[in-house]
Amino acid sequence: MNILPPRGAVKNRKIVGRGQGTGSGCTSGRGNKGQKARSGYSWKAGFEGGQMPYARRIPKRGFNNRGFEKSFQIINLKDLSCFNDGDVVDYNALLEKKLVNRKSRFVKLLGDGELNKKLHIRVSSASKKAKEQVERAGGTVELVDVASVKKA
Q1: Counting CB atoms within 10 angstroms of each CB, which of 23, 64, 115, 143 has the fewest?
Q2: pLDDT (tens digit, 9 = 90+) per residue, 103-120?
Q3: Which of 152, 86, 89, 143 is closest to 118 using CA atoms?
Q4: ∠ CA 8-10-13 to the nearest 5 degrees?
C-alpha cells in the first residue's frame, strides 16, 4: 500500500541561475550586488547595518524578580488515588507515578476531589482545604523546603 502526500503538498525546489530564458537567471532573485547577494551571507538577529540597534537605543528602566520566582507544580487530592494506604507521598514518589515532572521541585497540594486514604504527604505548599481533608482522612501534611528533598 502506497500512501501519497496530498496534491500540492510536495513542491520541487526552484532552480535558479540557469540563464535568462528560465526567468530566474542573471542575479538569481538576489537583487544587485552587496553583502546579501553573496554566498554564505547570514545576518545576525538585531543587526541594523552598523547603526546603533534599537535594543541599545532605548533606555533600560525598572527591575523585576521574575528570575527568582518559584513556579509550583499543582497536585490535587483526586490525583493521589494511585497511592496505597499509609504511603509517604513526596516529590520522588510523585515523580515515579508521573504526576509531576522535573521542571520544578516545588509542589503545591490543592483540595480538589476526595481523599479516603491515610497518606503522609510531604510537599512545598498546601492549601487550607487540602490540609483539612488529608487530616480528616487520618493522614498528615508536612511542608518541606526544596533543599531537604533528595534528588531522584
Answers
A1: 64
A2: 888 999 999 999 888 999
A3: 86
A4: 115
Measured distance CA(111)–CA(133) in Å, rounded: 7
Residue 115 domain flag: yes
Q: Is 104 part of any domain?
A: yes
Cβ within 8 Å of residue 13, ≥6 positions away: none
Scanning the chain, the segments in alpha helix (DSSP H) are 54-57, 91-96, 128-136
User: DSSP secondary structure string, 30-44?
Assistant: S-SSSGGGSTT--PP
Closest CA to 133 of 104, 112, 107: 112
Question: Is the residue at 41 inside a domain?
Answer: no
Report helix, strand or coil for 92. Answer: helix
The answer to whether residue 9 sits within a structural domain is no
The string of pLDDT tens digits covering residues 72-94 is 999 999 999 999 999 999 999 99
Dihedral of the alpha carbons of 36, 41, 47, 52, in degrees to the nearest 10? -70
C-alpha cell at 73: 507544580
